[in-house]
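User: Structure with iron/sulfur cluster, tokens only please.
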Amino acid sequence: MSELKKWYELPVGGLIIEPGSAVKYKTGSWRTFKPVLDRSKCNDCLICWIYCPDNSILVNDGKMVGFDYDHCKGCGICAEVCPDKAKAISMVLEHQ
Amino acid sequence: MKVMALTGNEAVAEAMRQINPDVVAAYPITPQTELMHKFAEFVADGLVDTEMVLVESEHSALSATVGASAAGVRAMTATSSQGLALMWEILYIAAGLRLPIVMAVVNRALSAPINIHGDHSDTMGARDSGWIQIFSENAQEAYDNTIIAVRVAEHPEVLLPVMVTMDGFIISHTMERVEVLDDEVVRNFIGEYNPRYKLLDVENPVTFGPLDLQDYYFEHKRAQAEAMENAYRFIKEVDEEFYKISGRRYQYVEPYEIDDADVVLISLGSTAGTIKDVVDNLRLKGMRVGALKIRLYRPFPRDEVIEYLSNASVIGVMDRAIAFGAPYGPVCLDVKSVLQGTKFSELPVVNYIYGLGGRDIRPGDIERIFIELDKVRISGEVPKSPRFIGVRGEEDYFEKVKRLVKN
Ligand code: SF4
Ligand code: SF4
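Assistant:
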């Protein structure tokens, strides 16, 4: 996160005037559980990528490659929607 | 310029016709109904380009106005009493988002018991909501203040919503002589509205109202407080420009016969007119009395109040609302707090609560208030709690005071 601004340096009314700036706002510290991927079970269907509300499924070349832990809030939706045949994501306690 | 016979409601509707706001969202409530009724006629007759949104409640009325204002257009609304109460949540949102909405508030008592008549309980409750509040003494001022409010709200250093108030029925439904500016003059005065940020400007996307936690919320509130300070600084410039187009010069406060006055009575709204009349009469009888009308109530005109009270020996403050549980009525709390810490902090201040639910305040009542204040001046005995004026069961005090006055 960039240095915190002073009150007179801020845009009026709490507006966000820079599109996509949420990427700078790290929400990963809110997590209790974190998703962990078992690559060997994953079939790259990318259902998790569709469902993740925080855009935190990292995809490279059409392949699911892991999580953006700076922004993943640990909601567990990815683990829930990962198809029964795969069940490639498990949720583990953050400090484990 | 032309002279028209208008009620306060019609005068504000006329101002709105000239302002020609892009969006007006409103819900009818007595005594504001006539205002919007008149404005809806202008819409129906094609005299304005306004998109009129008829909503199902005042919460929605202000919400739609907030939405329109954030989208990037000039948006207005109007309400009274319970309507303002129902807008409560959105009042703070409009101010926090720094949206330059102008809203006419036709002052009316709050339920319960239900009452449709004028007092200041509705807007006094909203005095700390972040809205600028301008009080009007008569229909002319309601008209003028509405036009001025657009420029104040949209001032780039201010960007705050403004309430323009008038006393329910006493001003809103009384027909008066009103000088109406030419449409062209008003349109030039308010100018085009070009907000810096617009929600519907897809080329420059912005987010209104995002989550704001411990790390930034306080900074945004500090900036909002500064906007009020800027309003205090810049409203006089707008008033001065308005004087140039209208010949009517407005100040934050209006002194009346105050220079040599021993006794000064402070008030807001229509009562200020009655007080001026009583001042004239008492001066004929040789009493050195004066009056101070507060026109700009938020931001509170702290320097002007001190300046004009500096020659007084005793001050009365008229409150048309009760701040339940507080030591005094809202206006008196403000007056006392600005005097505190100055060389006038020992100045006797007596608070008068009056006119709730539209109870008449008559010249005789005000005369007796001046007489009591004069007695306070002589005796130095200052009542420590607010006096209730014109309420049954409180007459005795004045009876005693009357006997002390030599006719
Ligand atoms: S736990 Fe939630 S936020 Fe994190 S990657 Fe899975 S779906 Fe996205
Ligand atoms: S939903 Fe499961 S199987 Fe499909 S890409 Fe995501 S982790 Fe792999």
